Amino acid sequence: MAAPSFPVRSSGRSLPGLRIGLLSTYPPKVCGLGTFAAALESALTDLDSRVSVVRVESPTGPVTLAPAGVMTLTNGQPRSVQNAATWLSRNDVAIVLHDFGIYGGTDGDEVLSVLEQITVPSMVVLHAVPKAPTPRQRSVLVAVTDRVDQVVVMSQSASARLLDEYGVAARRVSVIPHGAMGATEQVLPTSSDVPASTFLTWGFLSPGKGIEVVLDALAELSDLSPAPRYTVAGVTHPELLSFQGDEYRSRLMERSQSLGIRDLITFEAAYRVVDSLRQLIASCGVVILPYESHDQEMSATLVEAIAAGRPVIATPFPHAVELLAAGAGILVAHGDVAAMASAMRSVMTDSGLVAAMAAEARRMAPSLLWSSVASLYIDLARSLLRAPQPVAI
Q1: Residue 74, beta-bridge partner list
Q2: Kind of pairing, strands 286-289 and 329-331?
Q3: Beta partners for 329?
Q4: CA torsion, points 206, 28, 78, 166, in degrees to nearest 10?
Q5: Of 188, 223, 232, which is closest to residue 341 (Cα–Cα)?
Q6: Could you tell me which residues come within 8 angstroms of residue 40 by beta carbon, excluding any fewer than 6 positions away?
Q7: Would you say 250 and 377 are in contact if contact means Cβ atoms under 8 Å apart?
Q8: Does the model's pTM come out above 0.90?
Q9: What b/e sequence results for 175-197 when a residue is b if at least 16 CB atoms lie within 10 Å of its CB, and e otherwise?
Q10: How many CB atoms within 10 Å of residue 267?
């Protein structure tokens, strides 16, 4: 997607390689936003940009040593907020990643102080655009979009929601997909080493992922040979783990035991880095995303699955409807065990269907790789720098 051109501040610089300030949570913190930031930083660097990272940290959380060259914004400390804005403003363009709960203040409103003090062109990347926000969340999100030169969302559904429900002008919104690491080797899901009877769900484990529906569906496939195998991979969501431990995983294991399918399920409680995650995805035939949410406008897991050339079975949350429309996957109704069982049976018994889904996923994959996504961010950043300086009247 071409970046739009519109009147914003201009730094007056014209550089062969951009200097980009990036504000986000960041590894070693385990969270989706931090993983996104690290991947984007690496891809931008590979395209000859120089990235200065400011990581967001809570003063009450565990103390971690900042990686070399990374500055820290400590929530709740005005001087730290000011220093972060100054650091970001030393670059040509600032990219601010946003999600509720990341920044200090009520509904993360401390980010507004950072944005107000940034003196170079800026863009915000919204990782969530709530369909039913609280009044305060709505006001914070609108204020965030008002304080930057461009707003980036990662799906057309998120863009439509931002325009229709938050009143953001279309000219100020760009859609850039979530990046994916992709696969080093494309392995056909119908090949003998990766049969379509091997299913995978991965990501932070928590209620709402709909895994119970898949377990119940598996119990209805006992007549198939070979028997389906299902891997549920990922650590328990950090917030859930902090007050409930691994209780939810234990409940899922007990459910599979009571259904008589415990030997068909692998529960893997590990946080995988890039190469390890690539191997995990390559080991499966079909990715299942049975999310209970009807409103999810972005799924990094869905993007990774398609970029790896894997067919997908998913519930019809907005991002899945959007990305699977051309045939890379099958949509099943939320909570519908019979529909889930039918979809799983179809991919296990119809090699032509699986091959067609995999081919479509591979066709889409190049546009989702981090290298492609980072180039769109650079194009958008350059459009901000090229835009004319507003003339005071």
Answers
A1: 57
A2: unpaired
A3: 312
A4: -40
A5: 223
A6: 22, 95, 179, 370, 373, 374, 377
A7: no
A8: no
A9: bbbbbbbbbeeebbbbeeebbbb
A10: 18
Q: How far is CA 61 from the centre of its chain?
A: 23
Q: Tokens representing 335?
A: 């909570």
Handedness of CA 166, 170, 173, 174 (dihedral sign): positive
Task: Decide: 4 and 40 in contact? Cβ < 8 Å.
Answer: no
3-class secondary structure, 124:
strand
Per-residue pLDDT of the chain (393 residues; tens, 9 = 90+): 333 333 333 344 444 689 999 999 999 887 889 999 999 999 999 999 999 999 999 888 776 777 888 999 999 999 999 999 999 999 999 999 999 989 999 999 999 999 999 999 999 999 999 999 999 999 999 999 999 999 999 999 999 999 999 999 999 999 999 999 986 544 444 444 467 899 999 988 989 999 999 999 999 999 999 999 999 998 887 777 777 778 899 999 999 999 999 999 999 988 787 888 889 998 899 999 999 999 999 999 999 999 999 999 999 999 999 999 999 999 999 999 999 999 999 999 999 999 999 999 999 999 999 999 999 999 999 999 987 655 444
The two structure tokens encoding residue 12: 């007056």
Q: What is the DSSP string of 312-362?
A: EEE---HHHHHHTTTTTEEE--TT-HHHHHHHHHHHHH-HHHHHHHHHHHH
DSSP 217-244: HHTT-TT-SSPPEEEEE-PBPHHHHHHH
Give the burial class of 154: count Cβ atoms within 10 A of its Cβ; 0-12 exposed, 13-18 middle, 19 or more buried: buried
